[in-house]
């Protein structure tokens, strides 16, 4: 009996040390990381994937990267983040791109009013943005990265989120990167990160619906996903037909690298591109026709536009003027028309947009006519 009491007295502090030790060492050294398999050689125009924080898996200082990507000679990542719990600021997103080998500064071409842009370091250097858009637990968010060319030395890369509950798109930021025709490339990666929580609490994120739009405007998806992490306690589970649920810390036993077959349609479910409304007017002082239009948040986002102005109601023949551009935030253009005489005739204006998914809208039409009192 004396031996048992002595053993118990020794075992209790050892048990406490072991529990505390596991609490501090039960997290993987890196990851968990989820990656598509077999898509690394695709040159892509667009990448996207869905992410969700389940309400029972939220911990402070958690980052759930949804799309880690290569872009030209560099790369970047985007996703959603939880900072401190019960903080007054809503949950945010992140979009970051590392500097390029030529050392030419990356710059922000566009930012949403709630988006902040600044530099980052500590893991290389580059340009970073975040927006406190207020994600909600148990809601899915599609993170979309789209590239397009500006000129002979610059490529744009933009970041959108589709809120699967509200069914709305929002453009948060576009960076201008210093490389000609920089394509998106590499397998799409996602990871779950504890970036500042010293208690190393358990945290969970769910990922699904990985897609690429190739340079040939064809949709591609993986046949499988792979989940892995560094030494430490973590877990991955198949989620639906095309996803993986990952948990970092507090799981037992530790999991090994695991592959998950996926099953997806030939293309994602997208509504057609559309223009909500348009109008036009003639500015007599500038002698210009101005055309403006709108695209609803529930519609697929605009990437480029073409405006044609005709002298006939059939909208046929060679246009009197054509205005084209590639700009997701351009919804108004102006142009002169040679020999224009609004008092003698009407002018017939057609608008067609192409969305970020390569879909063209139907032609929206309006008539410009002389207005009289």
TrEMBL record:
Keyword Signal: yes
Keyword set includes Signal: yes
Stored InterPro entries: DUF3472
Keywords: Signal
Pfam family, one: DUF3472
Signal peptide extent: 1-23
Record's protein name: DUF3472 domain-containing protein
Classification of source organism: Bacteria, Pseudomonadati, Bacteroidota, Sphingobacteriia, Sphingobacteriales
């Amino acid at each position: 009996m004396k031996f048992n009491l002595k053993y118990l007295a020794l075992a209790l502090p050892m048990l406490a040390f072991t529990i505390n030790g596991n609490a501090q060492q039960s997290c993987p050294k890196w990851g968990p990381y989820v990656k598509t398999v077999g898509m690394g050689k695709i040159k892509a125009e667009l990448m996207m994937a869905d992410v969700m924080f389940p309400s029972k898996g939220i911990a402070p200082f958690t980052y759930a990267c949804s799309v880690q990507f290569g872009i030209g000679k560099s790369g970047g990542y985007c996703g959603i983040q939880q900072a401190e719990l019960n903080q007054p600021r809503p949950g945010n997103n992140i979009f970051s791109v590392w500097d390029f080998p030529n050392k030419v500064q990356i710059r922000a071409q566009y930012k949403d009013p709630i988006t902040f842009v600044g530099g980052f370091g500590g893991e290389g250097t580059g340009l970073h943005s975040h927006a406190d858009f207020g994600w909600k637990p148990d809601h899915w968010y599609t993170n979309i990265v789209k590239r397009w060319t500006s000129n002979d030395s610059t490529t744009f890369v933009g970041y959108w989120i589709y809120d699967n509950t509200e069914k709305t798109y929002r453009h948060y930021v576009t960076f201008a990167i210093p490389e000609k025709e920089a394509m998106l490339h590499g397998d799409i990666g996602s990871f779950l990160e504890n970036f500042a929580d010293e208690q190393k609490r358990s945290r969970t994120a769910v990922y699904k619906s990985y897609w690429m739009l190739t340079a040939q405007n064809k949709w591609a998806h993986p046949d499988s996903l792979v989940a892995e992490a560094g030494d430490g306690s973590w877990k991955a589970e198949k989620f639906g037909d095309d996803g993986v649920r990952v948990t970092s810390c507090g799981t037992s036993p530790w999991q090994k690298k695991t592959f998950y077959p996926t099953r997806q349609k030939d293309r994602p479910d997208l509504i057609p591109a559309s223009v909500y409304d348009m109008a036009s007017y003639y500015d007599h002082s500038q002698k210009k026709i101005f055309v403006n239009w709108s695209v609803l948040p529930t519609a697929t986002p605009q990437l480029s536009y073409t405006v044609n102005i005709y002298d006939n109601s059939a909208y046929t023949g060679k246009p009197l003027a054509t205005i084209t551009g590639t700009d997701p935030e351009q919804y108004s253009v102006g142009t002169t028309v040679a020999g224009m005489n609004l008092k003698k005739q009407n002018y017939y204006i057609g608008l067609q947009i192409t969305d970020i998914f390569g879909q063209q809208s139907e032609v929206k039409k309006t008539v410009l006519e002389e207005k009289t009192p």
